[in-house]
Automatic annotation (TrEMBL):
Membrane spanning stretches: 16-33
Protein name in UniProt: Fatty acid hydroxylase domain-containing protein
Keyword annotations from UniProtKB, A to Z: Membrane, Oxidoreductase, Transmembrane, Transmembrane helix
Gene Ontology cellular component terms for the protein in this record: endoplasmic reticulum; membrane
């Protein structure tokens, strides 16, 4: 129910673009978190 009301875009789960985007987004978030604690 929350997803149906608050999601911004629909990304297909079987798309290579989605998986690549998720990988780089996760990597960026990890990097920013790591930089924030220094």
């Amino acid at each position: 129910m929350v997803y149906e009301r608050l999601h911004i875009i629909d990304l297909p789960k079987d798309s290579a673009f989605t998986w690549i985007l998720c990988f780089f987004t996760q990597d960026l978030v990890y990097y920013l978190g790591h930089r924030a604690v220094h």
